Amino acid sequence: MTGKPTLISFDLCPYVQRAAIVLAEKNVTFERVDIDLENKPDWFLKISPLGKVPVLQVGGETLFESAAIVEYLDETATPQLHPQDPLTRARHRAWMEVGSSILSDIWTMETTHDRTVFGNAVAALKGKFARVEAELGEGLYFAGASFTIVDAVFAPAFRYFDVFDTIADFGVFDGLPKLVKWRAALAERPSVREAVIFDYEDRLRRFLEKKGGVILDKRLAA
Ligand SMILES: N[C@@H](CCC(=O)N[C@@H](CS)C(=O)NCC(=O)O)C(=O)O
């Protein structure tokens, strides 16, 4: 990798966090430029084909899509986070995809105004977390002792529950002891802690208030 990369970001975006975590794991110093997604600057729309963050600018080139960005980082900076074995690596890429699908359920939890849709998202999430639990071994991280890109993908998903847990217990970790342990280990990891701004939790609470969805009603029920 040539030159200091710039990560075009949005303060609450879990996909941005993936890239920030992987950059930190590789000790790559980078500049972070936050944009307002409700008022996207023209320069950003020119470089981001889907109008989404993260975008990584590096060596005069522009990359978009978090999976493509973290794969590029893994191929150009050490330590390698993906497993060496091609079959295991392919499996890890598949679990990254599960992580993205989980983010979509979490987005529904954050924003929906429909109780049935909310309940379905929580149920879907529980089902997916149970599948992940079955993949976990005894180590601290997804694949044991080493931190991998799958860890960088799941850490931002678990982080939402640091705020959701203060609203109500949604039970998504019930009966999943390995997942609970994994979540705790990821929360301690410096790269994960530093991937968000210091007042991230307050910003997320304000975002939930602004959306005014069903999730806030759970405060009353709890
Ligand atoms: N598949 C994309 C998803 C990125 C994404 O959804 N970013 C959101 C913020 S978390 C975004 O930029 N949304 C703006 C929009 O859709 O207009 C990735 O992995 O990078």
Please tell me about this protein's structure.
There is one protein chain. This protein has 222 residues and is an alpha+beta fold. The protein has two domains: 6-76, Glutaredoxin; 86-220, Glutathione S-transferase Yfyf (Class Pi), Chain A, domain 2, CATH 1.20.1050. The chain has helices at residues 14-25, 42-47, 66-76, 86-111, 115-135, 149-167, 177-188, 190-193, 200-211, 218-221, and strands spanning 6-9, 31-34, 55-58, 61-64. Strands 2-1-3-4 form a four-stranded mixed beta sheet, with helices on one face. Helix 1 (14-25) packs parallel to helix 3 (66-76). 31% of the residues are buried. It binds glutathione. Residues 10, 13, 15, 37, 51-54, 65-67 line the site of glutathione.
Quickly list its features.
Glutathione S-transferase Yfyf (Class Pi), Chain A, domain 2, alpha+beta, single chain, 2 domains, binds glutathione, 222 residues, Glutaredoxin
